[in-house]
Amino acid sequence: MRIGIVPRRRTACIDRESSVAHACRLMREQRLGELVVTENLDGKPVPAGIVSARDIITRIIAVELDPATVTVGDILWIRAHPATPADSVPETVERLCASGGDALPVIDFSGKVAGVVSLDDLWLALANAGSRAHPRTP
Q1: Is residue 104 a part of any domain in this protein?
Q2: What single-letter DSSP state applies at residue 28?
Q3: Which of 38, 60, 69, 123 could be bridged to 45 by S-S, CB 3.0 to 4.6 A?
């Protein structure tokens, strides 16, 4: 099974130099729990990671930092290795677990951000594939 058939959550992107306060406003406006953080590479925005509401709470609010002065790039744990529609679900689960994150950006074949896939999305896809492969008998 490939990532291309796994439903992806919609997302919004934010530049890594943007403030955490700006990220909070964008999450609120868009009703999102995470944003894909991008950086410019050869004049094109590419995924650098994901910042989640949990990251903001644990790494900014809980330690009483000023969200207006900290950038989203400052709180990225790791650089993202985005998933593509051609990636397999098991490979992506393994990569995501190894990263310690909850989600990965998904890029389309042109390199643009197409959405976000989470561990929950992947586990559900695997569970559904297994139930279709082994139907229950009455």
Answers
A1: yes
A2: H
A3: 38
Structure confidence by residue, pLDDT tens digits, 44-86: 888 888 898 989 999 999 999 999 999 999 998 666 678 888 8
28 pLDDT band, cuts 50/70/90, is: very high
Q: Provide the domain count of the chain.
A: 1
Q: Which region, left, alpha or beta, applies to residue 78 given φ > 0 means left and ψ of -120 to 50 means alpha?
A: beta
Measure Cα distances from 82 to 85, 99, 122 in Å. Answer: 10, 11, 14
- Note the pLDDT tens digit of each residue in 99-131: 777 788 888 888 888 888 888 888 787 787 765
Beta bridge partners of 40: 45
Residues 6+ apart with CB under 8 A from 76: 16, 37, 48, 49, 50, 51
CATH of the domain at 51: 3.10.580.10
Domain that holds residue 126: 3-133
Residue 16 lies in a domain: yes
